[in-house]
Specification:
The longest helix has 29 residues, at 301-329. The protein is of the alpha/beta class and 379 residues long. Helix 4 (100-109) packs parallel to helix 5, helix 5 (124-137) runs antiparallel to helix 10 and helix 7 crosses helix 10 (359-373). 36% of the residues lie in helices and 22% in strands. It has 2 domains: 18-145, NAD(P)-binding Rossmann-like Domain (Rossmann fold), CATH 3.40.50.720; 151-288, Dihydrodipicolinate Reductase, domain 2, CATH 3.30.360.10. Bound molecules: nicotinamide-adenine-dinucleotide.
């Protein structure tokens, strides 16, 4: 049985506020909870898309702190109790990845829709089984593909679809983050993160972002040649890998497309860059320090195009530099796309419209993650 992308709202009229709860009140919950409590990250204004009715965490202190900070929701330490007492129509699952399947199953079977942090499951076979459970319960389940909804990602996708860059030749996604830092959330040897339990360790946790971003730009491309070098350059015993260098080659409607996916725990500063290369031009952004650079044919022809590109990109660098100072002062995070995605999700759930991340997006992403971490593609 298949979960439909456009499901029916449980009851009530269009756009009414749904009763929402979260399970897991750790790091990423701040973003979900600020959205649910109506503090719009996008506009700075207060917009309520849902009514927060419950916060659940194994730690009572954490659950109570979050429930009080983000509204007047009740705090719980047991998901089944929260489902029975708070009766949420939507549950955000924000716990470590290996707990997602049992928690999502309990929510769906209790009649709640599920918005789940990535990776929703650790394999695509598990995802297929979970989607069957959702279909059987007539509820919807959606994995967060938040960076797809950042303004920079959207601008690159628009540059591609406008044809300004020609036909797509290559997509590069590069993340540099010091995940092995002993003072960070993954590197503390005294309190090992559950993320280390994923088959490909900490970098596995980022592979969902790589996969959905690559597929977002390379629409209709089937990547059938994959080679992935997984390394532990620092030989930190807590980590399976601290470096990924993956090359994917596929064929799409307009010819061959290469994908380059890089994760480096040793390179600095922090970076989350996206580059799309076409037959006529290329564009890049960094989701951590938003700025768009587009190099493409400009009016004036081949002689003037390089100069016009420099002038236009220089002006944009200055403008985005000022905007980034503003973001710093306002303490904006790179999660603007998460807030945009959640607003679209609540609208879809309330009206029965299509979710921003569809079942086929989730299946394709999960299958690509399977392929990238598979033993047979390792070099
Ligand atoms: N989309 C993104 O950009 C993004 C960013 C960061 C994290 N994440 C994802 O979000 C998820 C959570 O990450 P985090 O950094 O917030 O983790 P975290 O360790 O900071 O928080 C997880 C919380 O879940 C609680 N928890 C664990 N098992 C539970 C259970 N069975 N019932 C109730 N509570 C439980 C823990 O006590 C903890 O407070 C992960 O899947 C991670 O990959 C996504």
């Amino acid at each position: 049985m298949e979960q439909s992308n456009a499901g029916s709202p449980r009851s009530g009229g269009a756009q009414r506020m749904l009763r929402a709860a979260v399970v897991g009140s750790g790091g990423i919950s701040k973003e979900h909870l600020s959205f649910l409590s109506g503090q719009s990250h996008l506009t700075g204004t207060s917009v309520h898309h849902a009514q927060l009715v419950g916060v659940c965490d194994l730690s009572p202190v954490s659950a109570q702190y979050a429930a009080r900070t983000y509204g007047e929701a009740e705090a719980f330490t047991n998901l089944n109790t929260m489902l029975a007492e708070a009766k949420p129509e939507v549950v955000h699952i924000l716990t470590p990845p290996t707990s997602h399947v049992p928690l999502a199953t309990a929510c769906l079977q209790a009649g709640s829709h599920v918005i789940c942090e990535k990776p929703i499951t650790t394999t695509s076979a598990e995802l297929d089984a979970l989607l069957d459970i959702a279909a059987g319960a007539d509820r919807r389940v959606m994995e967060s593909h938040n960076y797809r909804f950042n303004a920079g990602t959207e601008e690159l996708a628009e540059a591609l679809s406008s044809g300004k860059l020609g036909t797509l030749r290559e997509v590069e996604v590069r993340i540099a983050l010091p995940v092995t830092d002993p003072a960070g959330r993954f590197g503390d040897p005294n309190l090992p993160s559950p993320i280390h339990q994923l088959p490909a360790g900490v970098i596995h946790d980022f592979t969902t972002h790589f996969a959905y971003l690559l597929l977002h730009f390379a629409k209709g491309v089937h990547f059938d040649r994959i080679a992935a070098a997984w390394s532990n350059h620092d030989e930190n015993p807590l980590f399976r890998y601290d470096n990924l260098d993956a090359l994917l080659i596929g064929t799409g409607p307009e010819g061959p497309v290469h994908g380059r996916l890089r994760f480096d725990a040793g390179a600095g500063p922090d970076q989350f860059s996206l580059r799309v290369y076409g037959s006529d031009g290329w564009a890049e952004t960094d989701l951590f320090q938003p700025n768009i650079r587009v190099v493409m044919p400009r009016s004036g022809g081949g002689q003037l195009s390089p100069i016009v590109n420099h002038v236009v990109n220089g002006a944009s660098l200055f403008r985005d530099g000022v905007a980034n100072v503003g973001r710093k002062i306002m303490q904006r995070t790179p999660y603007e796309g998460l807030h945009r995605m959640l607003a679209m999700t609540y609208e879809a759930l309330a009206t029965g419209g299509e979710l921003p991340v569809t079942v086929s997006d989730m299946r394709a992403t999960s299958r690509l993650v399977d392929s990238i971490i598979a033993d047979k593609v390792r070099i």
